[in-house]
Specification:
- By secondary structure, the chain is of the alpha+beta class.
- It has 16 helices and 23 strands.
- It has helices at residues 41-51, 79-82, 137-146, 157-166, 172-180, 225-230, 266-272, 284-298, 314-324, 347-357, 362-365, 381-392, 424-427, 430-437, 447-454, 464-467, and strands at 30-35, 59-65, 70-76, 96-102, 117-121, 124-134, 185-192, 197-201, 210-214, 217-221, 233-237, 242-247, 250-255, 264-265, 278-279, 282-283, 305-308, 332-334, 358-360, 369-374, 397-402, 441-444, 461-462.
- The strands form six sheets. A seven-stranded antiparallel sheet has the order 3-2-4-1-10-9-11. Strands 5-6-7-8-12-13 form a six-stranded antiparallel sheet, with helices on one face. A four-stranded parallel sheet has the order 17-20-21-22, with helices on both faces.
- The longest helix has 15 residues, at 284-298.
- The relative contact order is 0.12.
- The chain binds iron/sulfur cluster (SF4).
- Residues 25, 206, 265-267, 411, 413, 415, 462-465 line the site of iron/sulfur cluster.
Amino acid sequence: MSQLKFEPFGDNYPECSVTSGKDRMEEACGVFGVFASGEDLFRLTCFALFALQHRGQESAGVALSDGNGIYLNKGVGLVSEVLTDLDAMKDIPSVGAVGHVRYSTAGGGRPENAQPLLIEYRHGSLAVVHNGNLINAMELRENLEDQGSIFQTTTDSELVAHLIARYGYGDLEASLKSALTHLQGAYNFLFLTENSLVGVRDPHGIHPLSLGKWNGHYVLASETCAFDTIGAEVIRDIEPGEMVIIDQNGLTSKQVLPSQRQALCVFEFIYFARPDSNIHGKNVHLVRKELGRRLAREQPAEADLVTGVPDSSLSAASGFAEELGIPYEMGLIKNKYIGRTFIQPKQEIRSLGVQLKLNPIFKVVEGKRVVVVDDSIVRGTTSKKLVNMFFKAGAREVHLRISSPPVIAPCYYGIDTPTYEELIGSYKDTEAIRKEVGATSLGYLSYESTVQSSGLCESELCTACFSGKYPVEIEGGTYERSEKF
Ligand code: SF4
């Protein structure tokens, strides 16, 4: 087969993965993999996926290898809706499994886009799961289609399967190495063959991927909370550009792509990851508490109580309250049982969605000066609704405190954000945003404190949505931060 030739970026930079209407930064998938003979790996993988459910609620799936072929069980919905029969695959003498929960940053929420994706190629079956976003997906797809490829899904994850098949004259490792050289952006891929599990992290390490051990067998997961759930121990993070091959001979690690500047998504600490997860050895809850403490020092408020927006802001709110010695209270209740699919993206339903999901405790906030800690302001519509909700519940003052800086630029690495024009922080200053959302006062955490709270250096993080400086070059240059900040 002739060598594939791909041009570098064309003029058409792919659109940011926007689902217009979103007012939160949204997660982008969770992955899990295990290689272990003679265990009920379907059940184990389902348990791990329950722990990763916060990373994606649109579809869920598991692929299981019995050493000769790969079985698939996947669909649209939550893990509990899709993988309903935990005994469904218990009689399959499995040797390995991969699982996925999906948030559709690319390709929409179509049923065929549910992962794992399963392909048959010259070396057998291959199941693929992906967390991230390929920023050159559109161009890669066009190139492959020009050369005859037919795609079954609209996901960028399928691209890598096609590339592997194209380079399939060598073994998986060789094919994968060649395929990876074409990929730009954020990716954690897990591949399951009949007799191996392979994990790879992009050269910047934008999203987390950890290695653990369960009953003496290796496991891989987007977050360590999945290991806690199944009783596995954490071994380490997969390094940027590292490939791990797990088979009956144990684990082999290879640096398949030159490690570039580490650029871990700072929003994993602020919002995405579960508080009980550890990323790069830092506990997410403790990092959030530190964000809250620093926020209290930088943006104090005279108030009767502090409350947080569940669930992601509760840790920061407790840190804020502790730092100022103000009582921490449960001021908002979240209805956790409303699925994402119920909240339709139309404007009128969207605004209603906030009420369906959150409700203040009137007796707690009535007549009080309340500090409300939230993790970010994206469009501003949710914050406005939130502030209004507290005033309606009888709060005397509502001091909104944000445990991160203004979001001024969209994400291209697998996190669903609105466009520049829709990000309120990109065109309004703090006072204008305060007026817009109707808060008594508004304060953001500084960029410097956000970085310092993570315990990592600025050079080890992606902070592009606050700074506009993208770790992977974006065609058309970088966003210049406005003078107003
Ligand atoms: S742009 Fe923002 S959300 Fe996206 S990876 Fe970077 S820090 Fe994370």
